[in-house]
Amino acid sequence: MTEEHRNEDRTTFALPLRVAAELAGSFLVCFTIYMICTFGTAIYGLDLAFIAVGTAFAYFAVTVALGAISGGQLNPAVTVAAMLTGRTKVLDGILYVVAQVLGAIAAGGLLKWILPTSDKVTIKTWLTPVVNGFDAGSVSNATTSQASVSFGINLAIIVEVIASIIIIAAAMRTTDRSGRPDHSYAPAVGAAYGVGVAMTYTITGSALNPARATGIAIFAQNQKLSAEPLQQLWIFWVASILAAAIVALVMIIADMSSKHTAKKPASADSAVDATVESDDQAADEPAQIADAEASSEESEDSAADSSQDATPDDDEKKD
């Protein structure tokens, strides 16, 4: 099957199926990340590289599996950027965001349900590495507080915005104007999430996706963490939407600029054609004048000949 046929097939999926794909995809991605950050770090003490690579492959695998149905946005920030640039219809985008958040909440609920606890291993032990936050809510708070420093709100917003810009830009760059992803979408987006985690995990726990932050924050609330997750959740939505707006604005300006630039050569060609035509007309004028003079001389000669021919006849009549 050709790429053109595959693109045509993707346009035939009904909206409910596309929304279901976003819900299922969000659930799978978020549950995988939650598992990596809880069981992986709490039991084996896995490092940042493992979390970054695991997150990258989670998005990559789920996008490969479901991207052909809905586009594999799986992130409200990507969806908002797609809506702002006209790649996703507004109604579709709103339903996608709702599905993404519900999928993340389902993943958070399932994780909370399966986590084993005891007097020595409390729920706080499990949830601290997976909850997104800043300052006292940062995953590095236990370490930074000993050095009398903290990762405050400004730092959290800056790194989340920059990392989200990388992710959104990668997603937008590998989709066409109708929102269909190309063959490089999954690896590009997966790599972008990996880079984002490497940038942000020690500071905010790497939200990079407000749905991912929301899904675990709901079930980590009132669990005696250093900071209440729902009170800090807003910055992950603000950072993501801001990043989406920045990417969309740049894309819109670039698109307008390219259209304006495309018109200039056409105008220049028209001007050149007009100049050439004017030069041709100017060059033809002497020839036209010469032709007119020649025609005039021929007319005069013909008139003279006619006069001479008429004279003998007149003399004969007189005789």
UniProtKB/TrEMBL annotation:
Residues 294-303 have a biased composition (Acidic residues). InterPro entries: Aquaporin-like (IPR023271), Aquaporin_transptr (IPR034294), MIP (IPR000425), MIP_CS (IPR022357). GO terms for cellular component: plasma membrane. It holds the Pfam family MIP. GO terms for molecular function: water channel activity. It comes from the Bacteria. It is a multi-pass membrane protein. It is found in: Membrane. Belongs to the MIP/aquaporin (TC 1.A.8) family. This is Membrane channel. It comes from Bifidobacterium leontopitheci.
